[in-house]
Each structure stands twice: as structure tokens, then as C-alpha cells.
Amino acid sequence: MKVLAFGASSSRNSINKQLVSHATEVLTEINSIRPRPDGNIEIEIIDLNDYEMPIYSIDRENEDGIHQLAQDFYKKIEDADALIVSYAEHNGFYTSAYKNIFDWTSRVSKKVFQDKPMVIMSASAGKGGGSSVLKIAMDSAPHIGANVLTGFSVGPFSSVFDASTQRLTEEGLIKSLYDGMALLHSS
């Protein structure tokens, strides 16, 4: 099983990337206890900064075509069997970095996520844990080919995530993460 994971943020110190990294470790732990019948899990965590493009516009697309990085991003999803995404929240919505990548990639296909099973989450410094962006992601899922198995939000991040161990510390969130990764593992 090939798993593609990313934090939907361009921050070098993204808490959403930290959460995604932790999620992939939990997925690996689950697989070590209950190996998948089809073999090992191969995980790739990508950095959105590697897909930075000019701001999408129909004029740019008409003049230059669909940006190669959008095609590369779409191919990464296409090559994966499953996805783990943690959405950063800016002003109650996606980050502009992620939204621009998504906008360009949607020109390859409106079904950006290609019906791959995925677990989505969000993390923020506030107690809402990015729940606004998570709701937007859940609501849009059927329209963009996102086969969301489950989702949850984490916040306030610094109160429920131990920076030294890079792991969640709150029991309910630990269970949500484990349950989500178990669903992905069995998909």
C-alpha cells in the first residue's frame, strides 16, 4: 500500500505536517502489529513548498497550459493507494498555498483526490483545532473525488501534542488518530 501524506500548509514549522508525520508513524505501528496481506506500507510525506506555482488564473492557463507542478501533484495522488491530509486553517479556510495548488490541480481533473481512501484532519493553535477548514474539506469531499474515511481536528495543538516526543497526549485524540489510521490500514 502506497500512502501519500501532507500538511496543507507552506510553513516550514507546520503543526499540520507534524500531525501528518505522527499519523504515518501510527499507521506504521498498526501495520507492524497487523501486517497487511498485500505487503508493507510505503509512505511518502511531501512538502507543499515543492509545488509552489504562480497564482492560478484562466489567462495563465490559456497562455501557458496547466502548470507542470500541478500535473506532478496530481500524479503523486494517482500513484498512491491512500492519502493522509492535515489542513491548516487561515481565517477559517484553506491556506492560500494549498488552495492555489488545488486550483491548478483541479484543471487536470475536478476529481483531484481520484476517489482514493483518505483520512483528513486539521490542527491549529486555537481550541477549535481548525474545525472550520475541516468542515469545508468534509463538505467538499464528494465533489472533488475525496473518499474520506474519517476526520478530526486537534487543538489547541501545543496543549495536546508533545513537541519532544512528536506525539499526541490527549486520550480522545490518540484514539481518534488510531481509529482513523486503522480504517486507512484496512481499506
Structural notes for this entry:
The chain is of the alpha/beta class. Helix content is 41%, strand content 20%. The chain has one domain: Flavodoxin domain (Rossmann fold, 3-Layer(aba) Sandwich), CATH 3.40.50.360. It has helices at 15-33, 58-64, 68-79, 96-105, 131-140, 157-160, 171-185, and strands at residues 2-8, 42-45, 82-87, 116-123, 146-154, 161-162, 167-168. The protein has a five-stranded parallel sheet with strand order 2-1-3-4-5, with helices on both faces. Strands 6-7 form a two-stranded antiparallel sheet. Helix 3 (68-79) crosses helix 4. The chain is globular and about 50 Å long.
Architecture blueprint of SSEs:
Layout: E1 2-8, H1 15-33, E2 42-45, H2 58-64, H3 68-79, E3 82-87, H4 96-105, E4 116-123, H5 131-140, E5 146-154, H6 157-160, E6 161-162, E7 167-168, H7 171-185
Parallel strand pairs: 1-2, 1-3, 3-4, 4-5
Antiparallel strand pairs: 6-7
